[in-house]
Structure formats: C-alpha cells, structure tokens
Write a structure and sequence with these properties.
CATH class: Mainly Alpha
Number of strands: 0
Number of helices: 3
CATH architecture: Orthogonal Bundle
CATH topology: Helix Hairpins
Shape: elongated
Largest sheet: none
Radius of gyration: 17 Å
C-alpha cells in the first residue's frame, strides 16, 4: 500500500507546476493547460483523502470539478479563438481588447 504522503506530494508538485505555468507563460493556451493541471492536482487530493478516510464524498466532488473544468476549457478556447481571429496572436501581453 502506498502511503498518503506520496499522493499529497505529487498533488502539491502538480499544483506548484500549474501556478508557475500561469505566472510565467505568455501563451494563452499554455496558461489554460496550467489551470487544468491545478484543477487535476486538487482532484488528486480529493480522491486521496476520500480513499484514506473511506468516504466517497471527495470522489463525488471530483465529478463537479471535472464538469467545471470542461466548461472552463470550452469557454476559454472559444475566447482564445475569437481573440486570435481579431488580433492574429495568442500572446497574453499583446491582447489588450478589454482595456479602456
């Protein structure tokens, strides 16, 4: 049996990698992938604690997080495609459509 600490360290590493990706990357698609990585890290923690405690509530909550992640991906990619059609770039620094 694998100890719970291994799962939590993996989850923390995934989350930190996602945060670094969001803060340092300028490509909008990479930023969305980093956000998805952070959501998957949270899902791993939910499943880990759910299994450790013998309660299925955490696994049920993962389905809700996955639903939000799918909706976020669909809407985010649609926004990126619309911005690319107008500005011909997906670089976050060059997209200033929402500025006054």
């Amino acid at each position: 049996m694998i100890p719970i600490e291994f799962y939590l360290v993996l989850s923390a590493f995934m989350f930190i990698t996602g945060v670094v990706g969001v803060l340092t990357r300028k490509n909008a698609i990479i930023v969305f992938m980093s956000i998805e990585l952070m959501l998957n890290a949270a899902n791993l923690s939910f499943v880990t604690f759910s299994s450790f405690l013998g309660n299925n509530i955490g696994q049920l909550f993962v389905f809700f997080v996955m639903t939000v992640a799918a909706a976020e991906s669909a809407v985010g990619l649609a926004i990126i495609i619309a911005l690319f059609r107008n500005k011909l770039t997906i670089n976050i620094d060059e997209i200033n459509v929402l500025k006054w």
